[in-house]
Amino acid sequence: MTPVVILAAFCGAMAVIAIGRLVLNAQRDWVDIGSVLVVVGITVLATFWAALEEGWFSPVGQALLALIGTCIVGAGVAVMVRYWNTVQLSNAS
């Protein structure tokens, strides 16, 4: 097991924790959702890197991982930037 695989596993654990905290938090807002998207996207990109190092998937599969990870990170950053100065979801109604 290469260090990159360990990094991908660590990122996966952090993504699970981030998603769990988002689900359990009653005071979540859009910035929290964007943060979770960034963490999940970084996990996908770390998995892409591990796939490159270990030879997992075909080149098309690896490119798809890179594209998906980049899109998720971009979406997360866009959500955080868009909603940085807005009210919380629970206070909006």
TrEMBL record:
List where the protein spans the membrane. Answer: 6-24, 31-52, 64-84
Top-level taxon of origin = Archaea
Keywords assigned by UniProt, alphabetized: Membrane, Transmembrane, Transmembrane helix
Q: What is this protein called?
A: Uncharacterized protein
Species, as recorded? Natronorubrum sediminis
Taxonomic lineage of the native organism: Archaea, Methanobacteriati, Methanobacteriota, Stenosarchaea group, Halobacteria
